[in-house]
């Protein structure tokens, strides 16, 4: 049983974890940077400790600083949330070395699945369908040309250690390959310190479907259904839905069973997500595994009633999963949108500053808001632009969207720019055929029309 847990994160996810710890009667320790002295997560935790300057590499993403804080405060375990150190195997090894439990998978699993090409190889050997592409890492343009001739265009060059769109380049034809390969390689070296690239064929149009998994230390693995994360901009998720209503039930069932098979093949423990691409014929292909909690985990919690964060903590304490697969029932539909401090009319330019006025929806059946904002808080410019998540749930997707429409109408954020207008327009647009949405739909179909409408309205 854990008595004290350090939350190695900030913002809304740190607040989410701290609340779960309080409900489990576990003392929480928050870490904060100098820019986050007045942050909500530092106020809500039982204890808080400053670990460094504003820059994340010197604070939240600094393994030594986090471990030092954990040792100084005498914690039993560390919950990493997502981002920062959540998928750093070297950090997990540090935890193991000093006898602090890491609330997540072990360092070996993170190593295998965090390296995208190794993950592809592992899945292929386990009989999991993967996208056509390179059999190993690609280091030269000559190798890239040979792979391109074999799999065809369009294709995607990806950093093996990448994520969040970093080290990625989409190549439409042979005339672009040399230049974009060089760009991807340079960016990968600058960010990750290596030139590890791989190439895969682009499945387009494609849906981005992910399966939420939970595994314990006794070999039990279950899925909590799937989420449709096809609403994306620049490879970043914008809106998520569970279940993936645009797919036939049999396909959804096969994807979930395949994800469980993949997780069992690697002995996966704790919470994780396997992401798939689904083509127009409903063929699905393994894309990657996130060996951590996902930003969009609340949509799964809303339709299953399972508290994923608490399950993570119980598994890390050595307890078996609370649920068996037959216990999991997906009820109704849930939608999540990400409220970001950015200006969608100005190429999504990030915004920061003083929060002059703030109001979130007061509540109501089927509504959940997660945020670390509060009135008169000064939003620092050093971190991710997401400032809140709004999640709704109802018996039908239409009703869940209507609740979301009402909830977003009640949101007021003054002092910084946000994407609230775009979110409101999206969830209230009755002409959207949600079945036809794919990973490029928001950028190529919806955004141009929305921007045109905004210009015409201003005129």
Automatic annotation (TrEMBL):
It comes from Ruoffia halotolerans. It catalyses: N(6)-biotinyl-L-lysyl-[protein] + hydrogencarbonate + ATP = N(6)-carboxybiotinyl-L-lysyl-[protein] + ADP + phosphate + H(+). Residues 120-317 form the ATP-grasp domain. The keyword Chloroplast does not apply. Keywords: ATP-binding, Biotin, Ligase, Manganese, Nucleotide-binding. Its EC number is 6.3.4.14. The keyword RNA-binding does not apply. This protein is a component of the acetyl coenzyme A carboxylase complex; first, biotin carboxylase catalyzes the carboxylation of the carrier protein and then the transcarboxylase transfers the carboxyl group to form malonyl-CoA. SUPFAM superfamilies: Glutathione synthetase ATP-binding domain-like, PreATP-grasp domain, Rudiment single hybrid motif. InterPro entries: ACC_Biotin_Carboxylase (IPR051602), ATP-grasp (IPR011761), BC-like_N (IPR005481), Biotin_carboxylation_dom (IPR011764), Biotin_COase_C (IPR005482), CPAse_ATP-bd (IPR005479), PreATP-grasp_dom_sf (IPR016185), Rudment_hybrid_motif (IPR011054). One of its GO terms (molecular function) is ATP binding. It is an enzyme of class 6 (ligase). Residues 1-447 form the Biotin carboxylation domain. Gene3D superfamilies: ATP-grasp fold, B domain. This is biotin carboxylase. It holds the Pfam family Biotin_carb_C.
């Amino acid at each position: 049983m854990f008595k004290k847990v350090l939350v190695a994160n900030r913002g809304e996810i740190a607040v989410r974890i701290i609340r779960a710890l309080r409900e489990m009667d576990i003392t929480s320790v928050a870490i904060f940077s100098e820019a986050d002295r007045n942050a909500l997560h530092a106020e809500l935790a039982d204890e808080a400790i400053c670990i460094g300057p504003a820059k994340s590499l010197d604070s939240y993403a600094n393994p030594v600083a986090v471990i030092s804080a954990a040792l100084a405060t005498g914690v039993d375990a560390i919950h990493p949330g997502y981002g920062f150190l959540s998928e750093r195997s070297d950090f997990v090894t540090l935890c193991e070395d000093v006898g602090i439990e890491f609330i997540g998978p072990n360092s070996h699993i993170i190593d295998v699945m965090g390296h995208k090409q190794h993950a592809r190889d592992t899945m292929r050997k386990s009989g999991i369908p993967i996208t056509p592409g390179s059999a190993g890492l690609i280091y030269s343009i000559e190798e890239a040309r040979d792979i391109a001739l074999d799999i065809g265009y369009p294709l995607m060059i990806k950093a093996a250690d990448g994520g969040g769109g970093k080290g990625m380049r989409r190549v439409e034809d042979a005339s672009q390959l040399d230049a974009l390969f060089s760009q991807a390689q340079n960016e990968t070296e600058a960010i990750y310190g290596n030139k590890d690239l791989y190439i895969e064929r682009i499945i387009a149009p494609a849906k981005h479907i992910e399966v939420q998994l939970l595994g314990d230390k006794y070999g039990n693995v279950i899925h909590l259904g799937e989420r449709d994360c096809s609403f994306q901009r620049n490879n970043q998720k914008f809106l998520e839905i569970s279940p993936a209503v645009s797919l036939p039930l049999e396909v959804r069932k096969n994807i979930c069973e395949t994800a469980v098979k993949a997780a069992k093949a690697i002995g996966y423990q704790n919470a994780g997500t396997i992401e798939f691409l689904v083509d127009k014929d409903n063929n699905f292909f393994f894309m990657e595994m996130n060996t951590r909690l996902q930003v969009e985990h609340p949509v799964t919690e809303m339709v299953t009633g399972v508290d994923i964060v608490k399950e993570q903590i119980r598994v890390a304490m050595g307890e078996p999963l609370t649920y068996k697969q037959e216990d999991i029932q997906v009820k109704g539909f849930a939608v999540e949108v990400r409220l970001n401090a950015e200006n969608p009319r100005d190429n999504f330019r990030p915004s920061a500053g003083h929060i002059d006025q703030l109001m979130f929806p007061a509540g109501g059946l089927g509504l959940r808001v997660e945020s670390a904002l509060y009135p008169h808080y000064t939003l620092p410019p050093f971190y991710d632009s997401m400032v809140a998540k709004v999640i709704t749930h109802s018996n039908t997707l239409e009703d869940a969207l209507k609740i979301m429409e009402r909830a977003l109408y009640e949101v007021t954020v003054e002092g910084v720019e946000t994407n609230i207008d775009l979110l409101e327009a999206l969830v209230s647009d009755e002409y959207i055929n949600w079945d036809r949405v794919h990973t490029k739909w928001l950028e190529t179909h919806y955004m141009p029309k929305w921007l045109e409408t905004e210009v015409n309205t201003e005129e």
